[in-house]
Write a structure and sequence with these properties.
By secondary structure, the protein is an alpha/beta fold. The protein folds into 2 domains: about 200 residues, no CATH class; about 110 residues, no CATH class. Helices cover about 55% and strands about 10% of the residues. Strand 1 and strand 2 form a beta hairpin. The protein is globular and about 60 Å long.
Length: about 325
Amino acid sequence: MKRILIVLFSCLILTFVLASCANRSEDQSSIFEFSHNNQKFEIISLYEEVLQYTAQIKSDSSLDNKVVYNEKVIMPFYNLAKGKKLEVDGYHPFFAPTLLEQRLEDNTNELLRNQKQINELIQKAIVTSAEWISGGDKTIFVLPFNPDQPSIINDMEGVSGGTLNENVILLLLDPSFSEEALKYTVAHEYNHAIAMESGGRDYSILSFVIMEGKADSFAGILYPEKKVAWLEPMSAEAEQIVLDEIKGHRGSPTAVLFGDLFDGNYNNGIPRWANYKIGYTIMQSFLTNNPDMTIDEWTRLHYTEIVQGSQYGDFLQ
């Protein structure tokens, strides 16, 4: 009898969630489309999927959290992308179930209430970016930030992102997000997407480093007043350590070194976010040496040419 009541309760919760989705206003549609010049854009919010996940996992504590998350969030996202013929194979690091289901549900509902404003901010940042460099059509997915990581949310001002390929950007949002941080992040990821249109990525450490340097240089041009934590300068000693590490593995897609550069390895003298810091430093050196090159040109330029045109050309010797 207890099991029957649990099942009935679960069905009632899911029915309420689905009914809420059906009764949403046009402003709360999960897909928002717009165009600018010859580019088409879609913003797809994954709020409904997350709310169905939290509703089901809260209704029955015996359910496997990972299984439910995969069923309610990951697979709908993957199938939606597949239906639109979008490649999203690199999504795995951005999706994870939570141990704070109620917090995630509350956060998602708050994002949903502010969806129109969020979409407008993203649209404005996309259009601003596209005015500088145009390219192919883009799809932007918006996923609520996992509340299990409050320190990361705080450090990133409530917003993070990833570019899965030249057509797909994924944004992670917490209700605490800073509007300026959101616009900067959109510009950063948009630059990645445009750079990927030209190929030239060989998945080496140096390639990833220069990609980040390009993106932060672009976002910094659009939003010069925005200061981001990951670009705080390194000491000269730390910079040399990072340069030596990258040079020793410049052609390798080593996950260990990538993790050290991103998260920091204080035993080895590598600061957190070193990949962003050194990438930005190299890119700024290149821009100083090549002041007449347009943003579109250097965004699409192969990373080896960026390095050669900077003061760090010995990387390739």
